[in-house]
Design goal:
- The termini are far apart.
- This protein has two domains: about 140 residues, 3-Layer(aba) Sandwich (Rossmann fold); about 160 residues, no CATH class.
- The longest helix is centred in the middle third of the chain and has 55 residues.
- The protein has about 325 residues and is α/β, with parallel strands linked by helices.
- It has a six-stranded mixed beta sheet, with helices on both faces.
- The protein contains 14 helices and eight strands.
- Helix 6 packs across helix 12 and helix 7 packs across helix 12.
- Keywords: DNA-binding.
Length: about 325
């Protein structure tokens, strides 16, 4: 193994970087090292075997790899495969090979090589491709940083919106409680039922969101008037925005909000007939079950199940009904209602 520490021009994109040259031909390795020094690499490490190359890679000392596939102790492809599954995935690799077989060349690119040259090649071309590999790598790194930052910001915003929406839905249910007894408790129960149904329907990753959507549907189904919303907005201007977000959570389309508001104020059977989204279909099943099962402080799951089977003829989702009755109802504890 040899190293080189010549000081390159500071305006080079390779300044301060180290190139690992994996080449068993001493003359070829010398020419490659000189070419890399000329374009600005601060240092170079030259090794002649796959084992030595892996030791340098695991040490994390290089910023670019120039890899000859024909090594005395192993196929250079094995290095690409190990880099692909290790922490070295982000290091750009420029492959050089005397094998003109197109299948091997394609395979090298598939394994993560940034570029490939077939021997014999011109050192000027090698230098140009090395500079391009560095620029591409830097661009990808910058894009990755931006993407991670945006992902974190989106996560925070999503959590904030979800939290605000949940608070507003609870506020609306509490406001209705004064006019319609037991509304708040029913909204919470229906939301819980929908979450259970989502898990039983193999949708655990959506259970919380569907439960929140169900509670929002309960607000609409219980005929919250525009005057009620206006009174709440007077005390908190953010209520109006959060109400709209709750509607969009259910509908996914701003143009449908007005139609949905009218739909929510129709009789229960008409509501069931027109709702086509999953959250609404689940809410319909759970709402009808709750209305029948919880009566004057008593909980009778059989009564709720009978109501679901009777409503099946007017458009409830039969699969949802069967799943709810078979998997959710037996797990409900009467003492919690």
């Amino acid at each position: 193994m040899t190293t080189d520490g010549d000081v390159p021009p500071r305006n080079s994109p390779a300044h301060g970087l180290t190139v690992l040259i994996v080449e068993d031909d001493d003359d070829q390795a010398f020419l490659v090292r000189e070419a890399m020094s000329a374009i600005g690499f601060t240092s170079s490490i030259v090794v002649a075997t796959a084992r030595a190359a892996l030791e340098e890679l695991w040490a994390g000392t290089c910023d670019l790899v120039i890899l000859d596939l024909g090594l005395p102790d192993a196929d250079g492809m094995s290095i690409l495969e190990l880099m692909r599954h290790g922490d070295q995935l982000g290091i750009p690799v420029l492959v050089v090979t005397g094998d003109a077989n197109p299948e091997r060349r394609v395979r090298a690119l598939e394994l993560g090589a940034q570029d490939l040259l077939v021997k014999p090649f011109d050192m000027v071309e090698l230098s140009a491709r090395a500079r391009r590999a560095l620029r591409t790598h830097d661009d990808l790194e910058a894009a990755s940083v931006v993407a991670r930052t945006l992902a974190r910001e989106l996560t925070v915003l999503t959590e904030t919106v979800d939290e605000q929406t949940s608070v507003v839905i609870a506020t609306l249910l509490n406001a209705l409680e004064a006019r319609l007894p037991h509304v708040h408790a029913r909204g919470l129960r229906v939301g819980d039922f929908v979450q259970r149904l989502a898990v039983a329907f193999d949708l655990p990753e959506l259970a919380v969101q569907l439960g929140a959507a169900a509670r929002a549907h309960e607000v609409g189904m219980l005929t919250l008037s525009d005057a009620d919303v206006a009174a709440l907005e007077a005390g908190d201007p953010l209520v109006g925005d959060a109400c709209e977000r709750a509607s969009l959570l259910l509908l996914g389309d701003r143009d449908q909000v007005t139609a949905a508001a009218a739909r929510f104020r129709r009789p229960a059977q008409d509501f069931v007939r027109h709702i086509d989204r999953l959250a609404a279909r689940m809410t319909s099943v759970c709402h009808i079950f709750d209305v029948a099962a919880v009566d004057h402080g008593t909980f009778d799951p059989e009564r709720g199940a009978d109501a679901l089977l009777a409503e099946d003829a007017v458009g409830l989702d039969a699969d949802l009904i069967d799943t709810f009755i078979e998997e959710c109802v037996p797990a409900l504890n009467p003492h919690t209602f």
